[in-house]
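Workshop exercise sheet. Pairs work together: one partner reads the sequence aloud, the other fills in the structure field after running the prediction. Swap roles for the next sheet.
Pair: D.N. / O.F.
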Amino acid sequence: MHEVTSRSLGHPARALHWLAGLFFGLALVFAIVAWTVGDVFFFRLGTEALIFAGLALSVDLLLGRTGLLPLGQALFFGMGAYVSALVLKNWSSSFWIAIAVALVFSAITGLIGGLIAIRSKGVYFALISFGLAQVVSKIIFNTRELGASDGMIGVPVAQIAPGLESGQPAGFFLVVLSILFILYAGLAYLMETPFGRQLGAVRTNEQRLSFLGVDPWRTKLAAFVGAACIAGVSGALYPMLRGFVSPELMFFQVSGNAVINVIVGGTGTLIGPLYGSALLTVLRSVVGSYTAHHQIVIGILFILVVIVLPRGLIGLAAPALQERLGRREGAVRTPILHADHPQ
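Structure field:
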């Protein structure tokens, strides 16, 4: 009986992993369909959805796992984008060098920002993170060497491998999908480690965690820096797709959209933000083709999700899938249980 109970505890995680496999499988199907149709627009739209899914994933690490609401996560996304653009324009056309430099700068910026913001809690943390993004975005907005309000245009394509560059829609889509998979799989694994459990303990009862000899401040700082690195890597991919960067990438709207993606998809699930980003990116594109007021539609959808589905789309789908997996396992194990314990 104990074995059955311990197995049952794994159902929620298995349901989320199954949904993650479905997401990446559907992304590959999307790539095949887009390649068959031969329309570059679909690849660019899908790639953009994946890039902003990385930003949403970083938000979920803080909001869903640590209980910290980051209203300025666009700071690290924009920082990664600007560093990547500068490297590609002035130093090297290597995709990997641009990603590596953006990762280092994001880690440094995340460490500095974390040392300032982590000392606060609740709404004060949210406001400080928002303020940091506003300060940096205004500095860039007024820096002529970085293009000021116009941003930087003419970012060259990045050389990923011999015969593969960011200017190839299908190839770049698969590269971004692979990076997003690595980020998701790495976080999913990390959540099963003692450090991942510490993050959950910080959200549940920070004071109790300190009684166990773990410094919650260091745990939150590590999560903050990790989220900054994920957002920075995601941002570094943006100029490779669009060929330009602008200070708007650090504005509150980008951070707000990432939070909406997380809540719509399912807070704390890791895979939910990916579904939310894909859904809302496509929805913005479709609605935006009919009206310039597409944010109204997004706002109404967000309100409905918060009221009707407070746990998000994955919060609705995962329990149903979990129950189905439980019934299937029970059906397989029932003959064995009857053989061990005849009635």
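Discussion prompt: The CA atoms of residues 281 and 343 lie 56 Å apart. What would you look at next?
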